[in-house]
Amino acid sequence: MFYSTSRSWLCACSLLLWAGCGDDGTPAGDGTETSSGDGDGDPGDGDPGDGDGDDGDGDGDPGDGDGDPGDGDGDTGDGDGDTGDGDGDGDTGDGDGDPGNVTYTAVAQPGGLDRVFIERHDEDTDTCTRVVLVSPALIQTFNVQLPDNWSIESVTNNQPADCSVLDFDEQIESGTGVIEFLDFDQFDIFPCTINVDVQFDVAGDPPTLDFSVMNLAVMGAC
Hints:
Keywords: Signal
Number of strands: 9
Number of helices: 1
Region (Disordered): 22-102
Strand order of the largest sheet: 1-2-3-5-6
Largest sheet: 5 strands, antiparallel
Oligomer: single chain
Signal peptide: 1-19
Distance between the termini: 140 Å
Structural class: mainly beta
Radius of gyration: 46 Å
C-alpha cells in the first residue's frame, strides 16, 4: 500500500515537470526570442542614427565641422580678413590706422577780402591744421582746384587741437587736391557747404597730411 502511494506521487511530479518545459527542453516562457529588435542583427538594431556613419553622426558630412561653408574654414564673414571684418585693409572705418579723433569746422568771415577758415582738429596728435581761403583770389601756390575767384591764402599747423592758440608752428606750402563749394548764400559770395579732399606736404612722419571732409557746413555763411 505504501509503495503504491509513493509511486503515484512520483508520476504526478513527472507530469508537472514535463508540462513546464518546451519542446527542446528549455523552460517555457523564459523570454528568449529571435524576433526583430532583439539585438540579433535584424532590421532596427543597426539602422541610421546609431553612429554608423550616416548623416549627422560626425562622419564628415556637411555641417559636422569638416570644413564646409560656415564652419570657420575661411569663408566670407568668418574673420579671415574678408570685407567688413576689421582686417585693417584700408577701408573706411575698419581700424586701418586712419585718425580716429579728427573733426572739421568751417567759418565764413566777410570783409575787404572775404575769407573762409577751414580747421582740422586732430585730438590724437593735439594739432590744429588751418586752411584759409580768400576771395578775390591771390596768386595760387597750391595745386588745388578751387571755385572761381577763390584761392588758398595759407595753411598752418598749430597746437593745441582746438585752435585756441595760433602760433603758426608750421607753414605748409604745397598740396594737391580739390575744394568744392556745393551751394552759396543769397548773395552768391560765401559757400554754405563744402567738400575738401586735399593732401598737404608736411614736415614729419608721415610726410603728408590728409585734409578730407564732405558736406561740411560753413558757419556764418547761410
